[in-house]
Structure prediction request, 437 residues.
Amino acid sequence: MRFQLNFKAGKPVYLQLVDQVKAAAASGSAADGEPLPSIRPLAEELRVNRNTVAKAYAELESQGVIETIAGKGCFIKAHPSPFRKDVRLKLLTEEIDQAVVQAHHLQVERSAFLKLAESRFDAFANKRTRAAETV
Amino acid sequence: MSTSQPIIETSGLVRRFGHTDAVNGLDLRVEPGRCYGFFGRNGAGKTTTIKCLLNLVRPTSGSVRLFGQDPARHEVAVKSRLAYVPDVVAFYPWMTVRDTLDYFASFRQRWNRDIERALVDQFRLDLRQKTSHLSKGQRTQLGLITAIAAEPDLLVLDEPTSGLDPIVRREFIRTVIGAYQDAAPGERTVFVSTHLISEFEGLIDEFTIIDHGRSVLTLDADTARERYQKVYARFAGEPPALELAGAKVVRHRGREVEVVVNGNSRDVLARLKTYSPESVSTEALSLEEIFVTTLEPEGAVA
Prediction:
């Protein structure tokens, strides 16, 4: 699992770690039962305080995303699929929130925003169709 | 956490040299297990403060407590629980690396030979080399080993990485994160004075900015990055004279305006929008940018 930290995101560093593990678990890029790096090497690699990593892992455990097995470390917990859908929707919500805020800054109204979203879905659908035809 | 005994506590600390107040009424409180950044420009009073903590100079007035004790009255008790790495590390030039490690170990109640060996290997130091032949980077590495092998409860670092090459700097910080805090992560406290703030960004969980011997800002690092934000706005034409009380205009060029806000971004954004900008975006400030914006004189706008 790869982590990327951004100190200019305005979001606490431990929460960035939490969200990246959740995203990896939800998208399947981290499989059920996959081990997470232990605290010391991860803290050394990211050059962050080990309290930060410990706090992220504690938060992930309390949310049921990972489990700690004594003497072995932390592992991605197996989840039923509905949980994953929740997480996926939540991750998408953050992206959409940013677009909504930007729309507000640009004074694009709700109806125009939703129309644009529809047209982007269509544009991607068209692209897929055309790609399929050329094959 | 705030009810626990602080590892470092100063109150109204003053140290005068002649007519100069090097430290001028400083209050500090460092909780156990924290990695505490002590940031200031050259001559801000960082080193004098550290010398007061270590009882190398006596405060003119005010009080210093380490582990709840006065370092002047309980010098041995206090010093047995801390280790210090200064910016320029001095060793006896005729001693080898091996002799130096043994010499430092002889003053210590605790000395972890495994950590010593692991770090000597990691830094690729030659135990038979005379300390007079070590490079500046190697001297700092040896200084760090003498500090960490003693397994102190408090590690005091004074400008530890200035003048070192990037590889030695990275390895230094890795060692503080890894080897030092390994045995008792929740209890080992780091107090680091530096102006190379970006290097320690991930390590610091609380900091004080000192200027002219006084504390200018003390904050938790995550809170600081949430509170201090930079707002960029671009206008269709020359922007109107902006009335943005509570925000600091850091750049105003052509159609673009950049302001720094401190905890009032919502309010400033709302007021900016009344001027109908074409686009607005925000980003958090890094600790180094917070340092610069805190110490830059007001109205110093490019």
